[in-house]
Design a protein that fits this description.
mainly beta, eight-stranded antiparallel beta sheet, 2 helices, 47% strand
Amino acid sequence: MRHFPSAIEPLEARIAPAAVLYHPLADISAGSVVDLSHLIDPAPVRTQVQFVTNFDIDSTTPGLQPGIITIELYDDLAPGTVANFLSYLNTLNVRGDYDGTFFHRIFDFGAGSDPGVDIIQGGGFESTSLHTHIPTDPPIVNEYREDLQNVRGSLAVAKVGGDPDSATSEWFFNVTDNSSILGSGNNGGFAVFGHVIAGLDVIDKIALSPKTNAGGALTDLPVQNLAANAAVTPANLITITDAKILPGTKADTTGIIYEVVSVTDPMLNPSTLVTPTLSGSDLNLAYAAGQSGIATITVRATQNGMSVTDSFDVTVKANLFAEITSDTLGNLLLPGSTGAASVKLSNNGLATAATNVSVKFYLSAITSTEPDGLTFDSSDILVGELADQQINLATGASVTLSKTIDFSKTQLIAGTNVATDYKLIAVVSPATGSAFDESFTSDNTSVGGGTHKAANLIGTFTDADGILHKNLSLTYTEPDGDIVKLHVTGKGFAEIQSTADGIDILANGTNAQSVLTAKTAKTGHIALHDVQVTSQLGSLAFGQADLTGSVVLSSGVKNITLGDISSDSHLAIGTYFPGNTKAVGIKLGSVHDLQLNSLMPIRSLTAREWLDTTGDHDSISAPSIGTLKITAGDLQADVLSSGNARVGTLSVSGSLENSTVQINGALGKLAIGGTLAGSEIHTGGKIDNVTLGALDHSAVFAGSDTLPTGLDDIGSAAISRIVIQGAFTDSQIAAARLGTFQLKSASLPTGGIIADAIKSYNRTGISPLKNLDTPGTFDALDDYAVTVV
């Protein structure tokens, strides 16, 4: 009798003259009774088997008219294959493996002129769990015979491609003559071990069933009563509801004497691990208390002087079973939530469980593919662990282990939101390196815990249960070991999500006094991806946060502090309210590729550097900009101050490169420590002071968007003072009036200056020119000239 299929391995039969080992015994892991009634077959009687199905063969008649298939097996011609088939069948009153399986494949080989189904296949999958295969014994030796061909109505084994000796539980009926396809040239031939003696019409009707693709091994799945586009349920499967040996077709066992020959250990010494006793054909097994190991039992069956002998192994081990017995965690789990969970470990095996175990508590997400959260997988969230717990459990004994769970000490919960439900589960495993071996590990995951929601939320808010949470902060550890703390000061709350791209933050309910802060204890920086605040905010204090995504402050903010920014990021700032006159102050680290768009005036904007590494033209846009300072490097971004307010200072410690600066109002100070290169500066009003390290292929126009050609288009805006420390190369400066101009470094310049009047002009190497207000050309040098219009 098959007890635990994972351990079955039929042994070589020892056969007395004229007697046949009819049904080899299988190895077992523990168990109490072994049926010996099929050991001997004194006559070559062919066994008949009947499959009762849920297939309605006459839908016009009220009620189910179940399709029944009767098969005669070739016990005498394919004894090993038949014995394997019968080992999966019900014996006596015990439910067999084939009960509840379904026909999972109807297939056309595509050979010949017949376009219909060639085989229908079964013996593999349980109808209660669509893709769960029944347990299988070890594969059997191929018994293909040339005199048993795959003709219509024959029953043959299914195998793995490229392995003739790979048949286990699956089989197929040949609906057509497939002898030319499934002969010895195809994977060693497919062994036929029986034929249909009644119900071939049922097989033909099943072959005409519609089929669907349910994925995995079920790409050609026959179904019944399945509506269009509906999901397959057990009711749609063509299921074998009862698989049985028909009475009177088994071998006659009258007068058979059974006896136990020996019980030995793996070294062939006598063993006391198992004590077998006989009751008719039933072999009852009793086990020595507290012992584990393997015993080999050899039995003999004799009838009319003819005997067969067979042996099988019995493996005796402990077996741990886990169940969660208490769970005091709240419905909503947040940073700072605490609770406790207990798991009960029981040993229902037949040996003592003496080892160290680890108990890990997880939150398992309830999803459409995992509606009960029952499966442990790598996406589950570890929330508590009991390591190296010593246990010593005799058979039937148990112990309860408890763990306090403190969410303030966990890692950031990955990819969560408030709508996600989780099941608390416990996973028990022997300690690493332990020699402990148990019968089964599939029952070491317990799902007896409650259902919870989990989220990374900070700030102040009321949850769905009406519970008020105040001033929650969140501390988590980054992969580099840096500890990060997030909190909201004042009103509002924020949800933190850990995604494949990084950390995202979404804040709601804040006001103009609220402060959203991210800090780390180390000097390093926090890695963030997206930040979104849907309500007003006082300050975004993220000076240690490096950004790789977007910051969206849709209802305005007073102050923003961010670390380094990269990866084509965006910073979008809305307004507090229509007609808002508040201005925002912005402090940034090193900026690489950023689009900054503010509907609020910018009071001040500082950054260490601002580089465009992709060539997509970084940009800074606002109704007005008070000051813009790059403190330690270059600026490579277009700048637009769209209002008429005066920009106080545009200061770059390095160079301003490949950019357009459009200021609709006046500009107080333009200070470029390096070179103004490949860029244009346009103002609608006056420029007070310009200091440049050098000027290269660029333009500075006060009161004009283009280079003036005459008095009519030069405008009225002035530049009070210009100092250029280095070369003036292929560039233009234009203003209605130019106060003083100083070109300190002698060079061979190109380009020039256009003005209505120039108060003072100084270039190294020439005498100063004063009060130039008469139209003309002055200081002409190669392609360079000063022009008064």
